[in-house]
Write a structure and sequence with these properties.
alpha/beta, OB fold (Dihydrolipoamide Acetyltransferase, E2P), Rossmann fold
Length: 443
């Protein structure tokens, strides 16, 4: 006869603890009875009173009740839904302190995972702290008990949509329209069959893509078109997979676009295609890559995980030749079109799964002078096997995950003989614990 394990009874009384550091997801770390406890709402250096929400053999989890000794960096969150909505985790920490904590995390990951210490740091790249997010995937849920449709991010550690009426981190064109979107969807016949909105704001246009599980009625289509016209959105519908996306208003909208004026390039993209969410930081990030990779007219440059060409086209303005490689065929087609639109003929693009061996691929058998890496959170470990063959003298690695960056840095330094010259953080996602970073390696 099988017996279910009894759930551990949580202590009912609040516990005092001193917070030592932050986790990668923005929770405070304390030690209680020799065991680490991860506490929502706590900041390094604080003395807090917390209650347990989970207690395991090796660790605990908790939630702040009061903060008898707050850090001087603690601030009042701007959003009334902070702590409930899972979109942000650090609104209670001053902007300058947020970037300091992200730098500490990056340095610690290099030391612990990459076994690399004493790293000179780039000055951090910072931009607007609010209204910066140009792209978002918003959840939608009709909740009869609340008498309305909820539109926004999910609650922290919960599958439910947070009940918010505006969002201060979204671009105002999006963040100020959550209540209007709620009212729009609440008036549709398929309000129970519309789970998600993909939102994107370009330099000149903005788009909303509604994921629908049933066909809208004629009245639904009319309401959606009217919303787009009133608030200045291109409206798209997606009934099934990505291939089912169709434009509703206007019938043939131009693609969205963003420019990198300092680099002299402009990009066009569909609302479903990946672009960086923070336009201001993206411009600064590309400028820093150009500065530290320093492409010259005689250089052959390899850009791995190139997407729609965000770095590739800027590199092509300065280098002799550039090869961009990406796993998504759609992204590569968009990159080629962007290169043509910008009249760049010294760049070529290839589709390849960079998590697989690259043997036999013509582009992978060439020699290059410089290498740019901009992988997903999984990092670039498999692609690094080609580094000795390429013979690059300088590598710039842009990362959205400091753990895999540190792992790959260890490979470059300890296995391939490169030196980590400098590294730093870029505040792509203020008010969150997300760490975007950059590292320069030389032989």
């Amino acid at each position: 006869m099988a017996f279910k394990a009894r759930k551990k009874v949580l202590p009912q009384q609040a516990v005092r603890a001193r917070i030592e550091s932050l986790t990668h997801d923005g929770r405070g770390v304390a030690r209680v009875d020799g065991k680490p406890v991860f506490i929502d709402g706590a900041l390094p250096g604080e003395e807090v009173s917390f209650v347990y929400t989970e207690l395991r053999r090796d660790y605990g989890e908790g939630r702040v009740e009061t903060v008898p000794e707050p850090t001087i960096s603690r601030v009042e969150p701007r959003c009334p839904s902070f702590g409930v909505c899972g979109g942000c985790s650090l609104q209670h920490l001053a902007d300058e302190a947020q970037i300091e904590e992200k730098q500490k995390l990056l340095v610690e990951q290099f030391r612990r995972i990459g076994k690399i210490g004493d790293i000179p740091l780039f000055p951090p790249l910072m931009g607007p702290s609010w209204g910066y997010r140009h792209k978002a995937r918003l959840g939608v849920k009709h909740v009869p008990k609340k008498g309305r449709v909820l539109v926004g991010f999910r609650e922290r550690s919960s599958p439910y949509i947070a009940d918010v009426e505006y969002c201060p981190v979204l671009h105002p064109k999006l963040g100020d329209r959550l209540r209007d979107l709620s009212e729009l969807i609440g008036g549709l016949s398929l309000k129970d069959r519309l789970p998600q909105i993909e939102a994107a704001v370009g330099d000149e246009r903005a788009a909303l893509l509604f994921r629908v599980l049933d066909n809208p009625s004629e009245a639904d289509l009319a309401r959606l078109k009217a919303f787009g016209e009133e608030f200045g959105f291109d409206i798209y519908l997606q009934r099934q997979g990505p291939d089912s996306v169709t434009a509703l208003h206007p019938e043939n909208p131009p693609l969205l676009s963003y420019a990198l004026p300092e680099q002299g390039v402009e990009f066009r993209f569909k609302p479903t295609e990946f672009t960086q969410v923070n336009v201001d930081i993206n411009r600064k990030m590309v400028a820093r890559v150009m500065e530290v990779l320093a492409p010259e007219p005689g250089d052959a440059v390899l850009d791995l995980f190139c997407g729609i060409g965000n770095f590739t086209l800027a590199l092509a303005r300065r280098a002799g030749s550039v090869v961009g490689v990406e796993g998504s065929r759609e992204a590569v087609e968009r990159a080629r079109q962007n290169a043509a639109d910008n009249r760049l003929d010294n760049v070529e693009f290839h589709v390849a799964d960079l998590a697989q061996p690259l043997d036999g691929l013509a582009w992978a058998g060439r020699r290059y002078d410089k290498l740019l890496l901009d992988p997903s959170r999984a990092g670039a470990e498999e692609a690094l096997a080609g580094v000795p063959r390429w013979g690059v003298s300088r590598i710039v690695y842009v990362s959205c995950n400091p753990s895999t960056l540190a792992r790959d840095a260890g490979i470059l330094v300890h296995r391939h003989g490169y030196r980590l010259i400098r590294a730093g953080v870029m505040d792509m996602f203020p008010q969150t614990a997300h760490v975007e970073s950059i590292a320069l390696f030389e032989q």
